Structures are given as structure tokens and as C-alpha cells.
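Lab notebook: predicted structure, single chain.

Context: the supervisor wants predicted structures on file for every construct in the current expression panel, including those that have not yet been purified. This is the next one on the list. No modifications to the sequence; it matches the entry in the shared construct table.
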Amino acid sequence: MVEVHCKKDWAYRTRFEIHLMRVKEVRVKQAYLVCYDISEPRLLKRVASYLETQGIRMQKSVFLLHLSQHKIKSVKATLAKMVEKDHHVMLIPLSPSALKKSEFLGTPQDRFHIF
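Prediction complete. Output recorded below exactly as produced.
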């Protein structure tokens, strides 16, 4: 990934790239891909709003979170309280090498581009 040399370079970065650069700066240990299958609109909105505070939204029901071991326990506990037994949330740990190899296929959405 290209280093940012001045503030105006940030304007040309995608939201995803900026997120990865900030994560690198704070040396967070683990990336998680979080996805859910929730059919109840109210619960779906609550879970999505909560996850947006913890990471970045990649797709409608997919989020990328970079969390410490302590913070992931807190996120899991919060999600467990929110989610009922008919709904599902999956947390997938991603290694740094897997994250670097990630690709976007198709037309990327406005908020981030293929990097």
C-alpha cells in the first residue's frame, strides 16, 4: 500500500484504504469480517448501526472490523444480547495476509474502489 505523504493525499484515498492505514497506525491485532442474516427490520437496523460504530460497512450485511482481543469479546457479547435465536451473525477472523490479498470483483460502490 502506498504511504500518504501529505494531508491532501487523503482526499484521493478510498474509505477502505484510509481505514487500513489507520488500523496499521494503531497496531490492532485482528481483522474480522462480520456478516449477518436478520429478517426483522428493527433488529437489522440496530445491529447494522452498532457494527457501523465498530468498523466499516463493505456491503449491506457485511462489515470489516479491526479489533483487539478485549474489544472483540465486548462486540460478541453485545451482538449476542441483540440477536435472537432465529437470526444469525457470523464473525470470521482474517489474517493480515488474507486481508492484503482481498479483491473486489464487479463494479465497486461509490464509497470504495479496488485498491
